[in-house]
TrEMBL record, chains A, B:
<dbReference type="InterPro" id="IPR036271">
    <property type="entry name" value="Tet_transcr_reg_TetR-rel_C_sf"/>
</dbReference>
<protein>
    <submittedName>
        <fullName>Transcriptional regulator, TetR family</fullName>
    </submittedName>
</protein>
<feature type="DNA-binding region" description="H-T-H motif">
    <location>
        <begin position="36"/>
        <end position="55"/>
    </location>
</feature>
<dbReference type="GO" id="GO:0003700">
    <property type="term" value="F:DNA-binding transcription factor activity"/>
</dbReference>
<keyword id="KW-0804">Transcription</keyword>
<dbReference type="InterPro" id="IPR001647">
    <property type="entry name" value="HTH_TetR"/>
</dbReference>
<dbReference type="GO" id="GO:0000976">
    <property type="term" value="F:transcription cis-regulatory region binding"/>
</dbReference>
<keyword id="KW-0805">Transcription regulation</keyword>
<dbReference type="InterPro" id="IPR025996">
    <property type="entry name" value="MT1864/Rv1816-like_C"/>
</dbReference>
<dbReference type="Pfam" id="PF13305">
    <property type="entry name" value="TetR_C_33"/>
</dbReference>
<dbReference type="Pfam" id="PF00440">
    <property type="entry name" value="TetR_N"/>
</dbReference>
<keyword id="KW-0238">DNA-binding</keyword>
<dbReference type="InterPro" id="IPR050109">
    <property type="entry name" value="HTH-type_TetR-like_transc_reg"/>
</dbReference>
<dbReference type="InterPro" id="IPR009057">
    <property type="entry name" value="Homeodomain-like_sf"/>
</dbReference>
<feature type="domain" description="HTH tetR-type">
    <location>
        <begin position="13"/>
        <end position="73"/>
    </location>
</feature>
Amino acid sequence: MSTSIANAPYHHGDLRNALLESALIILEREGEAGLGLRDVARAVGVSAAAPYRHFDGRGALLEALAVTGYQRFTRLMETIATDDTLDHMSAMGRTYVKFALDNPNLFRLMFSPALRRDNRPGLRMAADAAYRTLRHVTGEDVDTDRVAALAAWARVHGLAVLLLDGQIAIQAGEDIEALVAEIIDKH
Amino acid sequence: MSTSIANAPYHHGDLRNALLESALIILEREGEAGLGLRDVARAVGVSAAAPYRHFDGRGALLEALAVTGYQRFTRLMETIATDDTLDHMSAMGRTYVKFALDNPNLFRLMFSPALRRDNRPGLRMAADAAYRTLRHVTGEDVDTDRVAALAAWARVHGLAVLLLDGQIAIQAGEDIEALVAEIIDKH
DNA sequence: CGATGGATGTTGACATTGTTCACTTTGCTC
DNA sequence: GAGCAAAGTGAACAATGTCAACATCCATCG
């Protein structure tokens, strides 16, 4: 509706969001390295220089993507926090891993060192908000024991990363979610 | 020694290794994205096309770097395996994390999804050898319990990645190695 | 020996990318 | 309606990965 290829008006109207949507699709299909600024512009049907009216270069586009990723992640964690029928600690871990597996390249981008290299305050803030929610979800019982909290976080994050990179051998027909739950609930 | 800048001979003599050494230095200083094939050639004092006589493009150079990384990693683990005075499980974890912190960008490259994307048998073999050694070091007691083994690996790997990305807040003057040991030895 | 061929480097070119600049088009405000 | 800022265009630039054609060297064989 917003983008009719034929008879495209000079002004797009909502280019910034259109760029982000296309960029997210390309990111998940091609990976960060395959996400070219010109590709995004081409996908939206706009000139190569147009994105610069909305983003301060390629890095800023990536940052915006990562920020939306953190926001979606945070929202997921919040829904867990408000559900009292759950074991928060376990549900958090399973959702954490599921988010990574459902959005592999977005997840990788969120933790991309290239983005952290140049100081991007927006990213830092979105990430901090996510971690705050994380700590809130896992509750005070863990918050008081820093070592235990870090151990739990490391286990969940490591599991997500290893699964994402295909490092953990999955046997044919194996239920990954069940395996994840088993690992997370160990002890 | 081999490369005297002035009076450089037409044939380098050991260009392949010289390229790898320079590439490793640049990698650790600039990150994978900042590692340009032309930069490496320039650093060695050779033309931009010369590396193609020794590597099948940029990806192959990166693969060779990652392979040497896995080899060094494997050698580290083997020295632990032959030392009977150690708690293998704990020492493995601490060494794992230390390797990541000592060679951050090399470690990241070893687990880079971009490299795994195109099937690189050499990389796969080097990685498999490393994991075999890992399983050997941690001993049969864990090998029999797949879930426990994966949980331990995930915790160690996650800890490495989170530290690498600066996600774990380190208080001023804190002893990181001690914190790592504490987290790894938890339970 | 001396020529000769394969390995190793060089030069120059090409397509592509991120980015900038000058310009044009559009919609909104007095 | 005049004019101005926002939003988009097109041409250009430097840099990159890569390749093809040419140059140089080293080792081997008559």
